[in-house]
Amino acid sequence: MKHTIKPCFRKTFLCASIASLLASPVYAQQTAQNDDDSEVEKIIVTATKRSQAIEDVPFSINAQTQRDLERSGANTLEDVARTVASVSIQNLGPGQSQVSMRGVSAGQIVRDQPGVKEQVGVYLDESVISLSLFTPDLDLFDLSRVETLRGPQGTLFGSGSIGGTLRYITNQPEIDSFEGKLEANINTMTDGGTGNHIKGMVNVPLVDDTLAMRAVFYRTDYAGFIDALGENGSLNEDVNDGFRLGGRIALKYTPTENLSITPRLILQNISMNGANRQEVYNLFANPYTTTRPAITLGEREQYLLLQEGFEDDTTIADVTAEYTTNIADFTFVYSYTDRDILMSRDASALSGSVSVDLGFPNEAVLLPSNLLDRTQVEQDTFEIRAASNNDSALQWLVGAFMSDTERKYSQRLPTPGYDAFTDATLGEGTSAAVANGFPLNSPYNADLPYDLEQTALFGEINYGVTERLDLTVGTRFYDYEETRRFTTGGLFSNSDDQTDSTESDGFTSRVIAAYELNDTINLNAQVSQGFRLGGVNDPLNRSLCNAQDLEVFGGFQDYDDETLTNYELGMKSGGRGWTANVAAFYTDIEDLQVTLDAGSCSSRISFNVPEAHTQGIEFELTRQATEHLFISIAGSLLEAEFDSTVFDSSGNVLGGVAEGNRLASVPETSFAIAATYDFGEPLFGSSSTYIQGSYQYVGDRITQPSDQVAGAGRFVSGLPFGGASGTEVTELDLVLDSYNTLNISAGLVYDEYEILLYVNNLFDENALLSFDRERGGRARLGYRVGEPRTIGATFRYFFN
Prior knowledge:
By secondary structure, the chain is mostly beta strands. The protein has 10 helices and 43 strands. The protein has a single domain (3-499, 508-799), classed as Maltoporin, Chain A (Beta Barrel), CATH 2.40.170. Helix content is 9%, strand content 52%. The N and C termini lie far apart (67 Å).
């Protein structure tokens, strides 16, 4: 494979962004501020692994507090991201959200790519819980805040935080107070089902000034909104419903005033009955069949022979110990995570498409086939660190991190009766000869155990050069080693049995300068690095590949680490009733890991693109417009492009990876406007009455780089089945349209309870979130879609 590389360090855009930042109206207003600025609520964050007011953090960060989450009715990560600049969520089905920040994106990662690492690190307090495709879908009840750290955070948070870091910060046990809260909800979706939830929290002091407990429980029943057509005209409505059940219990033990120990246990189960997939073509349901009923699938419809499902059982046990001395604060964190994730997918169309290729009879093509993807993870992590706690100009932080992750990934494709058709068509004994020890009547099977070990040493120094200028220098040494074994069996496999390993070590660093221009404006500039560990591709399913796809994708094996250098200038300012946070950035990406669909092979491969970049400007502005009206605006303008062209073995551009083409999953423009109006005279005897509205715009996107190539939306199955010739063309626009959503809520607050009424997606926008293709589109084509209009009511009761 050869590369054409053209460096693209586009300083023009960055400089223009910086100029606009410094010339902004907020900057110009700074001279009008005076000493009687009104006091605003201070938000304390721990983004630098020490407590700090958010306005003093010298890089771009957003924090949504418990009050923000409750008033907006946020229940999911996508709800949180709605009003956070530069954050993009790609929904690929239940429990499969992919987060990207500032346009740093590899494109769509799917269930059968377990070796691909995440680009945004996700933490629950001090515990890392990131897992590539399966970003944990945690409940947001009783959170103190959600912190979004934009830009690479490799120095303090390591691999997987190349785009940024997302942190769920829970409320901790309170030693000296008894309090509790109950929350109940009911909601209904347009042309969908009814959902509800019930949640509760209690904080109980157990031993005076020494021991307290905080316990949380929740049960959420999700309404479905996708209808599934089936054989013989059957119809199952709202098939993608499900539930989430879980809780956490934490103890806080303070034997002395200098020592606190907080053990915690978290249990959660998610069970979904289907996927939010809207199909436009299915081997069994399309407009082209003549010996079978011709079917045109409509909005929020799919075609199934088998019910689909998703299960995620999560256990997290951790303990945090903090000890304070006259010299430093010491922190020790141990975390154990156990997750068992099962994706059950109707693969009947996929198996059926292969059966057509193999010349099997129609009875074999129509056999129900269930693809079972299981991911089992056990992870132990340790972190110990020390941070200075004096008032001197020199502040420091040092630490060590270790983790051991054992991950077992497996696939099974139970298809009852398939072996008989295999032996009848391809010769007696064929199915047994290719089984490789795996179960009968399962034409594809795979086991992929992984073991990832990592150690790291990190440190950061902050020095107050003058009263107004602070410099921060930090670095992290990391050492990774990953080993895996890949074993397959069945007719659709190569009967592989191989062991691979990947290892990496190096340094990732950052330098930050923060300057206090005056009492209301802080400027910051930084150069920071991030990285993402490479890996090894699974061998292609050669028996499924046509000659062209085998030639194009057959040469890819391992892929290297991805590295990123971020150049950034930001401003944080605030005055009497307003705040403004603005950042302009340019990121230079080397060996970007890009993922493509390998067409008929029913596989996906990852490879490196030598050069790419993202650049843009992000902003978050708030204004207390009147005594009762509060307005916030957040948004970003992004450019995320390849700076290299990658060719396949025939000299053709591979999968849309050409200089100047867009990176996947990245909207070039996105923004949100939210407003809250508190009535001067509360209604219905309440102590407070408010109305809140939020509007979100998300620009167009692509799911993978090849989707922007001319003709990418032209699909020909090549499968003669059901009276269709296989030469029919399905034309689709693979550029996902921009979408708009408007949410409205109203609340009544009383001394002991609160009532919230809301409508989400008021105009019932059918947002296309990502494109889904099975076996290169030969078996099935569809889109992941957002939730329809949802009307609901929430009741909260507080006691102490």
